[in-house]
Automatic annotation (TrEMBL):
Keyword tags: Acyltransferase, Transferase
Source organism superkingdom: Bacteria
Record's protein name: GNAT family N-acetyltransferase
Xref: Pfam families: Acetyltransf_1
Gene3D superfamilies, per the entry: 3.40.630.30
Annotated ranges, domain N-acetyltransferase: 1-167
Protein's UniProt keywords contain Acyltransferase: yes
Length: 167
């Protein structure tokens, strides 16, 4: 398997995986990734900004994530806790796995690959947030060594629980 930067030609495949995740959240009554977010424009912006990544299995896109070394405005203030570190970090957003491949450890594989990318840039912190009701993501993060840090608020005012991993 290979994690590589996403190309514009990958946008439809990425959106297909994101749509699966949106449908799953809706079925589970989790108010995350609803109201047309993330959408095709979000995915194209990720690709244009070099944030978009895809996980390939036999040249088929089976996972996606947005990975940014540019900081995150909404992470400047954290409530009911604190970040583990205050140095350089990478942010992971919009991680999703094709529903046909769920439960095979692929999201963990994406996280491991992002760590390798970080080490290549001498960055030793990953920060990520998720919806309070997204228990699957919380379990994934804890399993992969992320520590709960507190609450951050998105630009629309909705709260998310924040995690960080130092390596």
């Amino acid at each position: 398997m290979e994690l590589r930067k996403a190309f514009k030609s990958d946008a439809n495949s990425i959106m297909n995986i994101i749509k699966q995740a949106q449908d799953y959240f809706k079925e589970q009554e989790i108010d995350q990734w609803q109201d047309n977010y993330p959408n095709y424009e979000t995915v194209c912006n990720d690709i244009a900004n070099n944030y978009g990544y895809v996980l390939l299995k036999d040249n088929i896109i089976v996972g996606t994530a947005a990975v940014s070394f540019d900081g995150e405005k909404t992470y400047e203030h954290i409530y009911d806790g604190e970040w583990i570190s205050d140095g350089e970090y990478v942010v992971i957003h919009r991680i999703a796995i094709d529903s046909k491949y769920k439960g095979k450890g692929l999201a963990s594989l994406i996280l491991e690959n992002v760590e390798k990318i970080c080490l290549g840039k001498n960055v030793h912190s990953i920060k990520i947030d998720t919806h309070r009701e997204n228990l699957a993501m919380q379990k994934l993060l804890k399993k992969n060594g992320f520590k709960y840090c507190g609450i951050i608020y998105l630009e629309d005012g909705s709260g998310r629980i924040a995690f960080e991993k130092i390596f």
